[in-house]
Amino acid sequence: MRTSHNTLANRLATLATLGATLLLAASQAAAQERVVNLYSARHYQTDEALYANFTRATGIRINRVEADDAGILARLKAEGAASPADVILLVDAARLWRGEQDGLFQPLKSEVVSKRIPPALRGADAGQGPQWVGVSTRARVIVYDKTQLKAADVDSYEKLASPALKGKVCIRSGSHPYNLSLFGSVLERRGSTQTQAWLQGVAGNLARAPKGGDTDQIRAVAAGECAVAVTNTYYFARLMRSAAAADRDLVAKVGMVFPDQAGAGTHVNISGAGVARSAKNREAAVAFIEYLTSDDAQRLLADGNNEYPAVPGVRTDNPALAALGTFKAETVPIAKVGAAAAQVQQMLDRVGFK
Ligand code: FE
User: Fold this and answer.
1) Is 113 helix (H, G, I), strand (E, B) or coil?
2) How many domains does the chain have?
3) What beta strand segments (E) does 87-132 contain?
């Protein structure tokens, strides 16, 4: 009796083990299918919560490959059709356009995304869906030395070329994507003749040869090295919210204006996402980008970098951005802004704007 009982127990144990093994194998197979390989140029703490929330809601795991924008573009090009990338997240329309030219994306077919993201914040669409879509926005604004200038002296991009600002303007490299896009927006609004003349004027007004990032330009204004500079809003907001008193003092010396409020509105750029050309997990990739347009994800994306949501009507709670106030944004489609990059670069070369 004892022996046969043991045998039965052993058999049951074996069956249980076998069952568990099969279950494990099945769940591993399922887990392997439910993955999104994300190539991201964003690295903020709130992004952790973003990915965790998506995995909790869908069971789809996010595998991240992180590099800067240039690194991601280079890696995707090198990997070609063998790339494991499913979703590509890049910063600035000029870079998204570069990726589009390199054939890195496939059209994104999603009613959810079409409903949530305004047409002006989507990449080129040949009828199959956009190549990429904006998931957060930032404005490119003008900062100035309050002891030397008034807001009215610098309340338009056009005024950056005015004779009154000779030797007073600081800006990062003209061919940095942020500037290629800003200048591309001006090109869309004003045409090539006026834009090239304007670029020549700005280049002639520089206080020093372009160097450093946007934050360096704000610091240079506060230090009196220049009287006016150009920056993305999140760099300014980051200094406003800095734990270092020195940063907050610096911002207090500097005024900020949203340019072109009386005209076409301030230039707004995006960080954007698209489905990779040879995505192996296409459905999961689309689900992830749809999730990025949800209210919760929009808040996390914006808060992570002091940006604005891309989806209209989503509210964030950012004291620095609230202090900067609301503004009129341009309506130039971001796809056109990105696509102007090559022509802008030619103009910069012609006028000697490094
Ligand atoms: Fe940046």
Assistant:
1) helix
2) 2
3) 87-91, 105-106
The model carries a pTM of: 0.90
Distance of CA 206 to the CA centre of its chain: 27
The conformation of residue 36, written as its DSSP 8-state character, comes to E
Ligand 1 geometric centre to CA of 255 (Å): 20
> Where in the sequence is the domain holding 283, given as residue range(s)?
33-136+267-316
185 Cα: distance to centroid of ligand 1 (angstroms): 18
CA–centroid distance, 91 to ligand 1, in Å, is: 8
- C-alpha 3 to ligand 1 mean position (Å): 73
CA 7 / ligand 1 centre spacing (Å): 68
Whole-angstrom distance, CA of residue 114 vs CA of residue 75: 29
Question: pLDDT, tens digit, for every residue of 288-330?
Answer: 999 999 999 999 999 999 999 999 999 999 999 999 999 999 9
- Expressed in angstroms and rounded, the spacing between residue 9 Cα and the centre of ligand 1 is 64
Distances 332 to 96, 188, 231, 274, 347 between C-alpha atoms, Å: 16, 7, 19, 20, 20
Same domain for 168 and 301, yes or no, is no
Span from the CA of 253 to the centroid of ligand 1 (angstroms): 22
- My answer on whether 262 and 281 are in the same domain is no
Cα 292 to averaged position of ligand 1 atoms, centre (Å): 20
**Contact between 162 and 227 (Cβ < 8 Å):** no
How far is the centre of ligand 1, averaged over its atoms, from the C-alpha of 238 (Å)? 11
**Which SS3 state, helix, strand or coil, does residue 261 take?**
coil
Instruction: Please answer whether residues 304 and 49 qualify as being in contact, where contact means their C-beta atoms are separated by less than 8 angstroms.
Output: no
Q: Which two tokens stand for residue 292?
A: 């990025």
Q: What is the CATH number of the domain that holds 185?
A: 3.40.190.10
Cα(237) to ligand 1 centroid in Å equals: 12
Instruction: Give 346 Cα–ligand 1 centroid separation in angstroms.
Output: 23
Report the separation in Å between the CA atom of 177 and the middle of ligand 1, taken as the mean of its atom positions: 10
What is the CB neighbour count within 10 angstroms for residue 222? 20
Total length of the chain: 354
Both structure tokens of 305 = 């970098």
pLDDT per residue as tens digits for the range 217-245: 999 999 999 999 999 999 999 999 999 99
Q: Are 88 and 142 found together in one domain?
A: no
Distance, CA 83 to ligand 1 centroid (Å)?
26
